Each structure stands twice: as C-alpha cells, then as structure tokens.
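**Sequence, structure tokens**
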Amino acid sequence: MHKNNKHKKGYNFKELTQAHSALEPFVFVNDYNSNETIDFANPEAVKALNVALLKSFYNIDFWKFPDAHLCPPIPGRVEYIHHLNDLLKPYKLKDAIRVLDVGIGATCIYPLLGHSEYNWSFVGTDIDPKSLANAQMIIDKNGLSKVVKLRLQTEKALIFKGIIEPTDRFALSMCNPPFYRSEQEALEAAQRKMKGLGNASPIRNFSGTANELWFEGGEKAFLHNYLYKWQLIPNFAQK
C-alpha cells in the first residue's frame, strides 16, 4: 500500500467498533491466526466496516446508501487518491485542486476521501438521478456542499460531453469504470469471488447496480470513450 494509506497496517477493531458500534456484532476471532476479523462474504459486515473506517479516519459521520449499490472498500479507494496526488506533485500547482469524478455513484466515495486527505474540491457526474440524490444527501449531511457539486449526464453513451462547461478547469479526471460486458459476466465473476471466500452463494458481498458493474462492450469500450471522446468537445481539447 501507499505510504500515506492509513490502513496499511490492517484494522484495529477495538477502535473501529468504538467509532461505529454497529460493526461490533460482526467481529470475531479467526481460529487460524487468532486475529480479530469479519466475514468479508457478508455484505452487512463489509458495509459496517467501511462506515467505521470513514468515521474513524476521515471525519465522515453520515454514509448511507441503498444495499443494492456498490459498497466501495475504503483502503483501496483511498489508495487511488494517494497515487493521483503523487501524479500531481511534479506540477506544483498553485491553484486549489479541482477534480472531475465520472460516475460518482450513490456513495460519493472519492470526493469524501479526496477532500478529507488533500482538501480537493470535486464535480461528480452520473447517469442515475437516484444515485445523485443519495450522493447529495451524503454531501449535505457532512457539510460538503461548497466543495462537492453534482451534474447529471443525460446521455448514457457520453461521458464528458454535456458535462464539462467552457469555464471549467480540472487538475484531474478520475473514474472507477464498469468492469463487465453484461449482467451474466458480472454474476459469473461474483460466483468465483464468493467461492474463493468459501461461500457458494451467488450474492455479491459488494452488491452493485447495472450502471456500476457493466457497460456495453465492457471496460475496454468504456475506457475508449473516456480516453478519446473528450477530444470531440468544442473549446475543451484546445485549452
């Protein structure tokens, strides 16, 4: 893990359960190594752990979203933030860092972490109005409305067009793209994951809606749009 990642030494469940008591029922001692842990195949336990991490390390007191949505693992998501910060260092930017988060989702996770760790401000986009409504609730309840703004992408086949305004300036654009080409491919991957965790159930421990998990043509097609179609936006490629 990155040297700045607060979770590189593992979890202190005593401290985490003090921060979020709902985690406590899920904690048990692993017979293999006598360490405290949770059942990572249990979606409720995973969600409780991540809520506890946000409360303990990032001053996020409210983080709720429907169970159908992807539950992002905090250590991995903040790892992304730290590496992006490393990419910015050589540029020695004097202006405040403003980030475009494509596909912010219902959890608003990257703005929460990016603002807490580096005081970045964000514009978050999504094609799902319900996801944006939930993200806005998280933003409002954590007092972040001045530093995180949301925009609805009304054209599912587009990413930047209709989102980026002529006066916008972003230091970074980031995204956690859909990985799969179809619901069936996502389900098969989930079954392999659950089998690896010792659970034959097809239920994903991380959940995830269609918009979060699959895209026509898969990750390759999504990234092609992400990397190249921005060049078609008037007055953007030239700036």
